[in-house]
Amino acid sequence: MSSQFSKSNITGVLVYAPKSPTYSSIIEHAQKNPRWLNSSSAHPLLIIAPRKETELRPVILCSKKFELQIRVLGGGHDYEGLSFRAESPFIMVDMSNLSEIDIDLEEEMAWIQAGATLGHLYYEIAKKSRVHAFPGGICYTTGSGGLISGGGLGSLMRKFGLAADNVIDAHVMDAKGRILDRKSMGEDFFWAIRGGGGSSFGIILAWKLKLVHVPEKVSVFRVHRMLGENTINLLQQWEHTAYLLPRGFFLRMIMQNDGVGKEKKVKVTFEGLFLGTVNELIPIVSQKFPEFNLEHKDFFQEPVINCTERPCLKKECHEVPWIGSVLFLYNKRVDESLEVLLDNSVPVYKNYFKGTSDFVKTPIPEKGWKMIQRLLLEEERPMIILDPLGGRIDEFSETELPFPHRKGNLYNIQHLVNWDDNSESVSSKKIKWMRKFYREMEPFVANSPRTAYINYRDLDFGTNQEDYSYSKAKMWGEKYFKGNFERALVLERSPPYVS
After folding, report:
1. What top-level branch of life does the organism fall under (predicted)?
2. Is the Cβ–Cβ distance between 416 and 382 less than 8 Å?
3. CA distance 411 to 416
């Protein structure tokens, strides 16, 4: 490796070996899901933290020579830890130093290096404009390289499409150590990295993104209800309505436990972002969801809590600039300092979790919601997050990008279960519950194939073995990509992408 760096006239590259004191801190910082900290999976032989894109070429060439895998770490939100662990010997590339962002408001575009987080991007946009945004993910600590290469669901997608739908160009280093742009990589390669998982085809170095227009003021609100017989009607109303709302209206639903023991109930939270003023929002909500009881005054006073009668109703409502909605949907105060968007420190509190996902094409009947209620009450700290689709997403064909979950899908469900004791007895119990929940959901979600979102990767679906083939891999690949999986696999095995 040192020889290759010398040949490339590269000096001072950051390389960390297992005995380096910095090595362990990078591994710990990498894992937003610390479930893998005590994993028996191998740790990297070396961690490379490039400060220049050209420093990656020796890494690729040496890894090829010694048949080492490469794992690329962006923001660390890889649910199954594949960016920082492997069963075979591997090198980990930490992209966090490659985080430059160049915003051009005149052209309404931005070049962003793949090591920058979404929060960093949102921060830089907000510093320069109150009427521009980018339709990325809600969890802003996610790395831009990973989110965009997987498609990129987010709160602006119904108006502007996925994050990947708004990519104009990219820089990628291929298996030969060449830096390619859209023209030199070709349209097939460019198609594959926008939703097909970037590290399958090379290392994403930077994206050229199209910025979108948003109003100077947007409206956000959060309404909580306890799940009961009447609330199930509201759930069904949401699934029949949310994907048909005006495109600038994103209304997601979150279900989780509230209380303990015999007092435990399922709490349902409706979170809304509307690209417009309160005056424009209130008539829509009053017509579609009168049960929310949203009023103009709710947006200009302290949140109202009224638990004198069941179901308990709490309202949090604000009219804010777009960047305030970013903070709100991540459970921050809307007036919090924007510097919080740049915080990438290791959380003191360790939250371990298992996640998976589904897409839904037909509304879930009452018996399905009652089943969900029963299973959520069986376990501590489960959660499901339901994001409505429709709008702009429906205007793209299934083959436009590797992400195929377009027209005909009502919403996406993310299933999660959390725990704070990572002992084998606790974690195995939690994962067993998640697998049971996933099985029970089968009659109510998309089928033939049952589909999932690649950015919520779940190795329970299957993994590549040394003798992998399309016939074996399609068992999991078609869940994420449907018919696009075959095209992507052909590309992955074709020059110049193969090693």
Report:
1. Eukaryota
2. yes
3. 16
